[in-house]
Amino acid sequence: MTDMRILGIETSCDETAAAVVMNGTRVLSSVVSTQIDLHARFGGVVPEVASRAHVEMLTPVISQAMLEAGMVDGGKVDAVAATVGPGLIGSLLVGVSAAKALALVWDVPFVAVNHLEAHLYAAFLEEPDLELPLVVLLVSGGHTMLVCMEGHGRYRLLGQTVDDAAGEAFDKVARFLDLGYPGGPAIDRLAMEGDPRAVDFPRPMKNDGYNFSFSGLKTSVVNYVRKNPDVAAADVAASFQDAVCDVLITKARRAAKEVGAKGLCLGGGVAANSQLREQLLDACVADGLQAFLPARAMCTDNAAMIAAAGWYRLASDGPSPLDTGANPSLSLSVLGS
Ligand code: KG4
Ligand code: ZN
C-alpha cells in the first residue's frame, strides 16, 4: 500500500487542533491551540466564545501543522479528516467547513470522524498492533463509557454514565474547591499532597453493572466540605479522586474479564490522570492483561487521533459525502456499528 498522509482537524470543543498523520500511525505533526485561558474566567466552556476562537485560530493552526510536517502547499495531503460530532455545533461547523473546503481545493477525499471513535484510536497511534478484543475506558469532560472494541469500527457499548461525566465531576469539584479550570489537572496535582483515605466518599454503582454515576459523589464532596470547613483541600481532592478511580478501575477490570479482552485501554481527557494511569497499570499486571495508555497529549483533545481514526474509516468505508453535516449529538454506534 502506498503511504497516505491525512490532515486531521479537531474543533469540537475548546481546542483548535490540526495534525498530519501517515498511515494512521506516524504523527508527522500535531498542533493544538487551547482556549483554556479564554474560558477560565467563566469556569467552563462558553460555546459562542469557543466558535469565534476556532474561526480565528484554525487557519494558523492548519498552516503550522502543514509546515511542521514538511508540506507547505498542501500538495502531498491524501485526505482531510474532521470531527463531525459529538460536540458544540458552532465549533464543529468551523472545522467541518474548513475540511470540506480544503478537500475540494486539493481534490482529495473528505473523511467524517466521530470524536469518540477518535479517542479510541489514540492508543493505536503508539501501538498499531494492539490485540483485540480490547476494553476501552473512555473518560472525558463530556463522556464516560466502557466500550468493547471487537474489531476496527466494531464496538459494543458496555456502559456509560447516567448523569455527569467523570471529567465533569472533576471540573465541578475543582470549581467548588476554587482550584480553577480545567479542574482535572488541578485536582490531579493537589491530590498528590493529600491522603486518599482521609474522607470515605461513596463509590456510586461500584458493584452494579457497567453504568456510572458521578453526580451524587460531587454532592457528597460539597456536603462534606460545608460540614467540615477546616478539612485540607488536598485531602478532599485525594479522597475524591480515589473514589472516582476506584469505581472506574473496578468496572473496567470486571468488563475485561467478562468479555475475555486481551487488554485494557484508556482514552479521553481524564485518561491523563496520574492515579488512574497508575492503577490501570497495576490492575493489568494483576489480571494478566495488556495495558495501553496513550501519551497524555494524545488523551486530551488533539487532531492526530482524528487523522488516525480517519485513516481507518477511509480504508473501511471510503470517502464521506461532502454533504455530511456536523452532528452535535453523534453517538459511537452511528459510525461504529
Ligand atoms: O477529552 P477532553 O480533552 O475533552 C472532551 O472531549 O471532553 O477531556 C477534558 C476533560 C476535562 O473535564 C478535564 O478536567 C479532564 O478531561 N482532565 C483530567 C486531567 N486532565 C484533563 N481529569 C483528571 N485528571 C487529569 N490529569
Ligand atoms: Zn474529547
Automatic annotation (TrEMBL):
Keyword vocabulary terms for this entry: Acyltransferase, Cytoplasm, Iron, Metal-binding, Transferase, tRNA processing
InterPro entries in the record: ATPase_NBD, Gcp-like_dom, KAE1/TsaD, Peptidase_M22_CS, TsaD
Stored CDD domains: ASKHA_NBD_TsaD_bac (cd24133)
Chain segments annotated as coiled-coil in the UniProt record: none
The protein's enzyme class: transferase
Database matches in SUPFAM superfamilies: Actin-like ATPase domain
Transmembrane segments: none
The protein's Enzyme Commission number: 2.3.1.234
Reaction(s) catalysed (UniProt annotation): L-threonylcarbamoyladenylate + adenosine(37) in tRNA = N(6)-L-threonylcarbamoyladenosine(37) in tRNA + AMP + H(+)
HAMAP family hit by this protein: TsaD
Protein name: N(6)-L-threonylcarbamoyladenine synthase
Source organism: freshwater metagenome
